[in-house]
Amino acid sequence: MKAHLKALAASAALLAMGCALAAPGDVGQVQKQPINVTAIGMFLVFVLFTLGITWWAAKRTTSAAHFYTAGGGITGFQNGLAIAGDYMSAATLLGLSSLVFMRGYDGFVYTISFFIGWPVILFLLAERMRNLGRFTFADIASYRLQQGSIRTFAAFSSLTVVCFYLIVQMVGAGQLIKLLFGLDYPVAVAVVGVLMVVYVTFGGMIATTWVQIIKAVLLLTGGVLMLGLALSQFGFNIETLATKAVAAHKDGEAIMRPGSMLADPITATSLSLGLVFGTAGLPHIMMRFFTVPNAKEARKSVFVASGFIGLFFLIVCLLGLAAIVIVGQDPKFFEGGVIGGKIIGGNNMPVMHLANAVGGNLFLGFLSAVAFATILAVVAGLALAGASSIAHDIYARVLRQGKATEAEEMRVSKFASIGLGVVAVVLGIMFEKQNVAFLVGLTFGIAASANFPVLILSLYWKGLTTRGALLGGIAGLVSAVMFVVLSKAVWVVVLGNEKPIFPYEHPALFSMPLAFFFTWLFSVTDSSARAKQDKAGFHDQSVRAETGIGAAQASAH
């Protein structure tokens, strides 16, 4: 068993090193719980506080640069906390701790797979994206390629990712509200949609950034406090905690070994590829590199974010182990008081029951409010990314070909934010009964298949042409969506067919290579005048990417 404990410790050390990513998992179908007045009260305090920040930010949002990127005036440390806030979702807190609670080592490994994308961003992308970009992913992808076609593709691809990610968050919000506050699902979705529009429309990136920072601090503080209270029952000794968890779990020492979750290597590999490379292709994360004044601060923000997210995931995993002992052996947390039976509130409740067990109802209310607040912050960032694609890329650059004024562009952004809010609420209600796990895989799979190949090749491959980027990106986007639609998660579960046409639920293992292959093929066979111009622009792009000469400057706000 010591060998397994060492393996567990090594995994924990890897987490602490901080190559991190979080994403919302499936919070599952949950039953409505009694109204939690304490949690609702704390949530209202948070909402009023963040609305005050939005009012403060609105007075400072006077230009498109302020609206999209906070004027580039966010420090690396602040941006790192905001990025951490983008990743540390409520569903992560509930879902990953529950995985460790139920499956032990498998939950740890699953968590680590969410982390590995950050070294890619830190070492390959952060500085170059800051030096080349201004507002959106399309600014980078189209730097030396044909503006109109690449911007249109990038905007469409970004909006696809944003919409699917919004569905995940809205469905998660509705389920969490039923679970934590005892309110109805449509009410929860509508509240999230209205607040999202208010944050983005009035406060732009300044408000969104500070809401993310506050949420990240609250979530980390709550997690550290809960872990301290839990570890106090084990003499602050992690080995003692692990030993007691093994003794308490129904699977015994098996929870320290790989189990059924890793039985299918193709699914595991495909999921991991999507999570790792999809991280670098998420539009709301790429936008964050333009909020800092220079490449040095961009690199610092990734380093800071990795550290905080790594700490958070380490905490989440240890909370799952503590829940095995503290929650798993207390009959009051099981329906009918039967230990080992159904957990009250659903399978994602162990960490919330742990909060109640170690900190009482007040601490449970605090954690519930923070958990829901995390969704508000994430959807605000997503809405801003979607609005910027519509207003900056499609309207200002493609339709108006750079002739739109800043006032016009910002006005379009705000209307786009309202439209995205309506779409998010409608889709959230439509998908209420759906399992959101496949949507997470689809979101990251699309980002990894459509955005990442175009992004990385535009930065590092001289031979990339407009035709290659466009057709390769479309191949990745369409194949990722098709593979998921034809998989069991949609073809059988949603559409009611007997057997899936595509045998795997995660597309990245197949759609990513397709995107790279077609990007390469259509580039090397492109002998047009446009292709020569695309390749000739690589040298100037490299100089700016590596030195920052000519990069968009920060402005005071």
From TrEMBL:
InterPro entries: Na/Glc_symporter_sf (IPR038377), Na/solute_symporter (IPR001734), Na/solute_symporter_CS (IPR018212), Sodium:Solute_Symporter (IPR050277). The keyword Secreted does not apply. This is Cation/acetate symporter ActP. Residues 1-22 form the signal peptide. The chain crosses the membrane at residues 38-58, 79-101, 107-126, 153-173, 185-210, 217-236, 266-290, 302-327, 362-391, 412-431, 437-461, 468-494, 506-525. Pfam families: SSF. PANTHER family: CATION_ACETATE SYMPORTER ACTP, SODIUM/PROLINE SYMPORTER-RELATED. Gene3D superfamilies: Sodium/glucose cotransporter. Keywords: Cell inner membrane, Cell membrane, Ion transport, Membrane, Signal, Sodium, Sodium transport, Symport, Transmembrane, Transmembrane helix, Transport. It is found in: Cell inner membrane. GO terms for molecular function: acetate transmembrane transporter activity; symporter activity. The keyword Transmembrane applies. GO terms for biological process: plasma membrane acetate transport; sodium ion transport. Its main location: membrane. NCBIfam families: PRK09395.1, PRK12488.1, sss.
